Amino acid sequence: MLQILPFVVAGIVTGAIYGLAATGLVLTYKTAGILNFGHGAIATFGAYVFYYFYVQQQASWIVAAVVAVLVAGPVAGLVMEFVARRLSHQRTAWKIVGTAGLILLMQGAGTLKYGPDTRPVRQYLPSGNEMFRLFDVNVRYSQVTVLVAATLVVLALTVLFKKTRLGLTMRAVVEDPNLADVQGVSPVRVRRVSWVLGCTIASMSGVLILPFLGLDPILLTFLVVQSFAAAAVGRFASISMTFVGGILVGVGEAVISRYELTYPALLGMSKALPFVVLIGAMLLLPKRTLLPPSTFEHRPALLWHGPRSLRFAAYVVVFGALASVPLWAPGYKLTPYWTGALTMAMMILALGLLVRTAGIVSLCSAAFAAIGAVAFSQLQLEAGFPWILAILAAGLIAVPVGALVAIPAIRLSGLFLALATLGFGLLVERLLYRRGWMFTTLAAGRSMPRPSWAQSDVAYYYVVMAFLLATVVLVGVIHRARLGRLLWALSDSAKAVSTLGVDVRVTRVIVFCTSAFIAAVAGALYGAMLGSVGPTNSYFTSFNSVVLLAILALAPFRVPWYGLFAGITAVIPGYLPGENTTSVMNVLFGFFAVLVATQGGPAPMPKRLQEFFESKFGRAGRRSAHPSSTGPRVERTKTPPARLAPGSSALTVEHLTIRFGGLVAVNDVSLKAKAAQITGLIGPNGAGKTTTFNACSGFDRPSKGTVKLHDRDITHRSPSARARLGLGRTFQVMELCDSLTVADNVGIGWEASRAGAAPWRQLIAGRHELSSRDAAVQEAMELCEVTDVAGVQAGSLSTGQRRLVELARCLAGPFDTLLLDEPSSGLGVEETRRFAAILREVVRERGCGILLVEHDMSLVMGLCDYIYVLDFGQLVFEGTPSEVAQSREVQAAYLGAEQTGTRERPQVGSAAPIQVSAGGTA
Amino acid sequence: MALKKSRSCRRIALTGVVAALVLSACGGGGSAVDSATGNPLASDLPPAGAGPTPTGTPITIGLIASSTGAFSETYAPAGPVSQAWADMVNKELGGINGHPVTVKVYDDQLQADKAAAAAREAVEQDGVVAIAIESSVAGPAIADYLDSKGVPIIGGVNFARSAENSPSTWFGTDIQAPQILQTTANVAKDAGLHSTVGVVCSEVPECAAIGKVQQAYAPKVGIDYKGTVTMAADDTSATAQCLQIVNEKPGGIAGYVTSNPLSKLLVECRTQGYTGPLILVSTYAKLFESLGDTPMYGMSTGFPWFADAAPAKQFRDAVQRYGHGVDYRGYVQTTTWSTLELFRKAMQKDPASSADVTSASVLGAYRQVKDETLDGLLPQPLTFTKDGPSPAISCFWTIERDSKGEFKRVAFEGKSGNGAKGDLASECVQS
Question: Is it the case that residue B201 has pLDDT exceeding 90?
Fold first, then answer.
């Protein structure tokens, strides 16, 4: 044990700094709902400020520390609050881009100012390098000082949260910002305080770690990424546990490093540990812990889709220009700049498939590229594969790696998925890049030859261009095929897509695998361009993954143009040579990435330009995969009704109980929705209606009870499996695919169940399927009277129209049992009347069973055949509409005790109905 | 007539005074030095003898160096030293066979793709006839391209390929892998140590090979190699490494890492009780000076810059005169110099180079080089043949910084690798 003690001591100190940095991260995440990927950049900023005053200006360390921590930190906090406020209503991908852009900004600025070399900083704390003995271990006073300082700050923060009014208001804002606002607590002011505190703490951690690490923009930034592991141990919620987590990670790193020296097989494990912890936490923490606070998100801007003739002309012009490059560009610019730009375009297209199409932010593209490069070299040189086959096989080798990365994607999304991919990329870099079998043990790195038939720079350029063209075709085919449609829908609402029948886990695996394939091929082509690659090549670093994300965020246009545009940026250093070009580019990319993210993405093409192109090339085609939206009317064929025997049980819920921690949201509820009937489920706000729906759909797991569909137990089935068995649903808060057209939205309703869980069925649809889909879409749109807006982006419609589109989507699918959650909310009187008529027609013609949650009592009374009434999570009444109308229990539930007389809140677990005294009116 | 005589007398007198002053300056210590570099100020140097003005077609040599970017402190001096060499050749020696020579410096920023771009620009735009390398990433990125263009690589440091794996157009002038990995054992022996522990980087896999090479080689020269520890640039603590080192009780630490982790390691190891010296494989004055007062020994691939021998003095004089204040104290500086001097000598010996110089004529000239040592500036006699590969070089120099901060060559047992005596005498690893 004593042998390990020195490492424990060292690890506690480093871990305390991790923990300190992580508490700042958790603080801002809890109050602002934004996971700041640029947290390390803030720490780096603090370190730079300290270095400037302490080393360059020769100020005392106290002055330098005060300026860095108590001035620069709060200033950074105010800036971050401003940025975060603008990011708060943007989509998750932009939130990530907006904070990740800070990494580039800081790295570029730091390198411009101080160069890329690490600058050592001597220990500045008093008696910093003097020691004392503790249990036979040399301990430095600086280590003790760091530990004490970090602990005091965390303790102070904990006390602040628990004992002060400010802490109370911060917790209130976390729980319910609107309610806090009503109570006179300004959420903006509270968040500002949080950001100031969080950034001050980050700055402090940067200053403390400076003597241990030296001044280096990338090392400092990514060291704080390791603090994310500490935050994960604290479940991104508990400040004290986060600090403890940091110490545990630090000690773990240090102890493993002791054994790394003895057992070479462990080499890299100490560095990889934080990311193993991070990814492990992502996979093991309860899912509800990893749900960020939900906020309203701006709808994405409408993507203009140019006329076909314009697009064709653009392909000819762009690829013609690329093909002509060897004719006019100086030969020495071809390699590495122009050829490198082509491989970069491929990387951007690979990443764009995830980020732009599927809405999944991935920060490990560079790792896929490295795997592809290594695999290619081994296949070509050691296994003797022909060159092209080696390139393609290298891509295929990366596919299972992509599937591995997709595993977190199965249970994570948004911020945490991006974090998991960042952790994965860093894990691969720290653990695998240093292995001999990866980049060899030669100083020259891994040799990567060009094909014997394309050795010259010009010939090789055309080879790579051919691969780029193939990638463009592949990505284009994906976007036009079923997979593309599913990905677009997934990007807007994974929830909706899963309730329509798609196993989104399979979809995510497919898209990660595809992206990995393309990135791996790009990496192999890049390596062969240079002739050899090593682990320190910037193309394969995690930092490059961040750069790619920022460039992708800035690139305008749709696929594949954003890829080509972004790829061309790789040419800039060739035409603007200089030692600072790359750093200046990083500063610009980082800055504009943050700016664009706060605006929700690149600005769409100006209307005037759209009109100009349309006037020259014909009318713009609003993107729609369905000819029914723009082309000739598809002959409507009567959809065979999903026939259940009228009156048979469509959906049966038995003794359903749902708990959230200590709260019982639904208690022992049993109900039945019969086929060819409309069953109502009503109750005051908070009665548990939507929770019951969520349990029926599969989003909430019941503590007790069963859910049956057609007398078949589906309690433990996934939402998509339930949908494929015939259960459809709409949502109280609409889950439309806002960036798609109405026709595309409705089409997903049909297509999703066909796609299902089988990977090959998710890829493409057969011709006969397409015509069936079109017919179903036409019928559903006509039924819901939304045909005239078929080509309109769903996000631009009125609430009432969106409700109808959501219903039409449900009706397009093969569902025989529908859960409709407040479907008339937002509809006018006439719309509601028409809506009711639609439901009656659906029930009559298709024999569907409908379970309807509504607050419009006249609609419920006029429409439903049977009604269940919930209050406080319990079933308080059931009966026909007339029975419900006369029921005192129902009146009491809606109107309260004052109106109806004494009313006792039902006891949890009680089976007895509510005792209501006489009195009160309906 | 009387006036003319009077003016002539004044000129003679003035010249005499200047000469006296110069002679007195040469006589002993007390010359002013540049406080940053320690170099004598150029104004104190004797005037250069002017040679005939070269008038032939210019010869352009390319030098790809990592002048900026990471490790620029190591490689950046190569550029100014190469310019100083070109100025000396053109102004004092009449060029090369009457041709003025130009060295065009390309900065690869320690990135392979930029090195590839630099090589192409040098060959296709600037028409260089040969390329030298002072970068740890350029060699593998450009070797095959230059070979395909018939442009010779005339040496430089860190080519990063062993001799037998190099193309026939590469003419190495200094020790490469795997021999270079063996040298620290020799240095340790020269320093009178009995054992070493190696500290290697952990970020790149090639570092792992160092330990294996040392384990196999060190016993041959009587050094007990006690093991290898790894150190990464982002290690916040060197406790593990230093406890291991102290536990092994080595005579010296052989450091194969960059200066930042090395300085962290030193501080920690001193804390843990290590008192021995440090052995380095990157030998330049600024690095030594940045690591404090620890006794240090360095393996140098380039000749000792402080040697008294005439060729070394010529180097110092030229750099001080034309180098615009660059610090000449380092292995990159001396390797650059000896590489370019070899070029000059090879071309001067080849009659064909009196005509226009092309890459083909450079190749022809180099393939006639036989047993060349440049009077001690090269580590061993070099002979290049038509079919290559370049001979493996296994000789080097050991440099020590003593307690007064003075640099000196460390004496060794065995005969001189390059036949030189005094400070220019090189030693060789055992085969």
Answer: no
What is the average pLDDT across B47-59?
80
Q: Which residue has the tokens 């359903």?
A: A656
Which pLDDT belongs to residue B161?
62
Question: What are the residue ranges of helices labelled H in A131-238?
Answer: 141-163, 165-175, 177-182, 187-213, 217-225, 227-233
Alpha-carbon gap: A439 to the closest alpha carbon of chain B (Å): 7
Nearest to A331 by CA among A455, A458, A453, A454: A458
With beta carbons less than 8 A apart as the criterion, state whether B42 and B321 touch: yes
Integer distance in angstroms from the first to the last C-alpha of chain B?
75
Neighbours of A470 (CB within 10 A): 13
Q: Give the max Cα distance, chain B.
A: 87
pLDDT of residue B92: 93
* Mean pLDDT rounded to a whole number for chain B: 84
CB contact under 8 A, A579 and B109: yes
User: Confidence band (pLDDT; 50, 70, 90) for B385?
Assistant: confident
Nearest to A827 by CA among A800, A796, A788: A800
Spatial distance between the Cα atoms of B368 and B365, rounded to a whole number of angstroms: 5
Whether B116 contacts chain A with CB within 8 A:
yes
Chain A: give the shortest CA distance to residue B42, in Å. Answer: 29
A880: left (phi over 0), alpha (psi -120 to 50) or beta: beta
CA–CA–CA angle B139, B142, B143 (5° rounding): 70
Residue A363's CB is within 10 A of a number of other CB atoms, namely 26
Give the HSE-up count for residue A150: Cα atoms under 13 Å, Cβ half-sphere: 33
State whether residue B271 sits within 8 Å of chain A by CB: yes
What six digits make up the tokens of B9?
Answer: 């007398």
Taking contacts as CB-CB distances below 8 angstroms, the residues of chain B near A438 are: 205
Q: Any CB–CB contact under 8 A between B124 and chain A?
A: yes
Chain A residues whose CB is inside 8 A of the B205 CB are 433-436, 438-441, 535
Task: Give me the amino acid identity at A604.
Answer: P
pLDDT for A303? 64
Query: What CA–CA distance (Å, rounded) separates A271 from A276?
Result: 10
Question: What is the rounded distance in angstroms from the CA atom of residue A445 to the CA atom of residue A321?
Answer: 34
Which among A223, A536, A574 has CB closest to B234? A223
**Cα(B56)–Cα(B98) distance, rounded to whole angstroms?**
5
β-pairing verdict for B195-201 and B252-256? parallel
pLDDT at A68: 97
Q: Which residues of chain A have pLDDT under 50?
A: 622-641, 898-922
**Is some CB atom of chain A closer than 8 A to the CB atom of B295?**
no
Place of tokens 């960042």: A422
pLDDT in tens, B7-41: 444 444 444 434 433 333 333 333 445 544 455 55
Helix (H) or strand (E) holding A498: helix A494-499
